[in-house]
Design brief:
Blueprint lengths: L2 H38 L2 H21 L5 H22 L1
Length: 91
């Protein structure tokens, strides 16, 4: 084989190894996300955060600017408080 054929085979091998490493890394990240969600999340929390994200999106559109950290924190706090108070009333 000529030098160029070895060079091309080396490049192909390098690309194959890098793709394998990238896919393996992505798989590990996805498994960790699923595990953390199962361990640390609940339906109430998911509903509260979804509602908070929707409210933030609406407020960003109405104000035509990004929200400050304090504004985001207030929205999240209010949504969690409302959701958990509703659950307490039902009990």
């Amino acid at each position: 084989m000529s030098v160029y054929q070895y060079f091309i085979l080396g490049i192909l091998l390098g690309i194959g190894i890098s793709l394998y490493i990238f896919a393996n890394r992505e798989e590990k990240i996805n498994k960790e996300i699923i595990m953390n969600k199962r361990l640390f999340s609940s339906k109430k929390l998911d509903k509260s955060l979804e509602k908070a994200v929707n409210l933030m999106r609406l407020q960003i559109q109405s104000l035509n600017r990004e929200l400050t950290e304090e504004e985001k924190d207030n929205i999240i706090y209010k949504c969690c408080l409302e959701n958990f108070e509703k659950e307490q009333e039902l009990l």
